[in-house]
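Proteins fold reproducibly. Take a tokenised chain:

. . .
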Amino acid sequence: MTDDQMMNSASAQAHSLLRTAGTPFADRVGELVRAWEADGRDPGLLVTGRPFFALYCWHLQTSRGSREHDAATTAYVASAHRAIGGAAGWNAVLSERAHCSCHGERWRLENLSICLGCLDYVCYQLDGPCCAGAPIVG
């Protein structure tokens, strides 16, 4: 049974929001955070797995730049981070292995990046963008 099959409906909704191709990632995050806030910060709307990897890498990268996130987005990311086990959970995520979509090679997640357009894992060997105009983080 896959992670997606084991999710409850709230969790599936959260994952689906971040996987909506064609919408800028920041807009998808905003929609997810608004849904989380509207639902009383339901822990069931916190993402895990690949969507969490994308969210957390995006948040880390954009926080290092000139962008400041609103309090609700920061609270959502912090809550999702705590829900996967905090720093220990993040280290466990980074130790997981996955295939890059560009070459099909298997890597630890700490050695992969993720396309924010399609949420596919990509390796350092990717030649060019994955999805037109979509950033790659991680």
